[in-house]
Every structure is written in C-alpha cells, then in structure tokens.
Amino acid sequence: MSMKELLESKHPTAWSEFEMGLIDENELAKKFFNDGRSFDLEGLKACMVRAYEYIDGVEDILYSLKQNNYEVHAFTNYPVWYQLVEEKLKLSKYLSWTFCSCTVGKRKPSPDFYLHAVDHLNVDPASCIFIDDRMTNIEAALSVGMVGLQFKNAEVLKKDLCSLGVEFAPVHEGEIQVQ
C-alpha cells in the first residue's frame, strides 16, 4: 500500500484519538481503516520500534544538558507507545516524559497543550525553550510566549542553544553508553 493509499483509507481521527489517550490500541486496531479491515498492529509497533534511533549528535546534546543540570521534558504527540521509545533508547536518562499527548489529552499545536506545560512547571513561558522539527508547532510555542527553535540537525541546534546562552558540558569519549 502506498502512503497515498494509506492516507486515503485510514480513519480521519483514530490516530489522533490514540495519541491523546482517548482510545486504546485495541480500539485503534478496530477503527484504523475506514472500511474496518484488520491490520497487523504488532507488526506496526515492531516497525516503529525498529525505526527508533538517536539522530546523530542528539544524545551528546542531551547528555551535556543533563550534566549542566538543565531541566528537559519530552513534549510529544505520542500515544502510550512512547514507552517503547523509552525501552529502546532510555531517554529518561536525559529527560522526563512529562508532556505526552496520551497522558495530558492534548496535542501540538494546540496552545492549550503549551499552556498546560507552563502551568504544570510553574514557569514564565519566556524561560522555556521549545524545540521541534515542525514550524507549525514552533509557531504555537511562540504564540504563548515560549522561545522556539526549529530542529534541523544537532550541530545547528547546539549553535542555536548557545546563542540563547545555554552552556554545554564537554562530552568525553566513552562517557555516553548507548544501549
């Protein structure tokens, strides 16, 4: 099935409902396709897990931020399957899975999701640096007063963060143990 065919045949809201925790994976499996056909849910999960990997240079950035005691939170449109990401990459070594759409019930780019984060952390939005690869999500962060950076690659991100005054601890060879 081509991507075009998939997009034309999938249920219009099933995935976003799953991301927000409104339906569980069994319900997702039932309504994923408009015509009700079944599909290999476990195969989809396995395919997604195989695709998870650190983008070159990102783990070094996360490690350095952790070493310098910066508070880092996941802010993601992801279903309960974020736990599969955690299981494979062990991201919680570097960040807290605080703002997952499946637990908060909101999705990017809804301003309510960003405001929820600010309220939960009890911080001024201007003290938050929001990083995302999608400009629409960055625009939403900017609209509530956060600083927004578009992720292009690790090198650009590090330069962008440095320009905001973020300090990086040196990463010494052998310190990071990717599992």
From TrEMBL:
What top-level branch of life does the organism fall under?
Eukaryota
Return the Pfam families for the record: Hydrolase (PF00702)
Q: Where are the transmembrane segments?
A: none
Spell out the InterPro entries in the cross-references.
HAD-like_sf (IPR036412), HAD-SF_hydro_IA (IPR006439), HAD_sf (IPR023214)
This one is known as Uncharacterized protein
**Which species does this protein come from?**
Oryza barthii
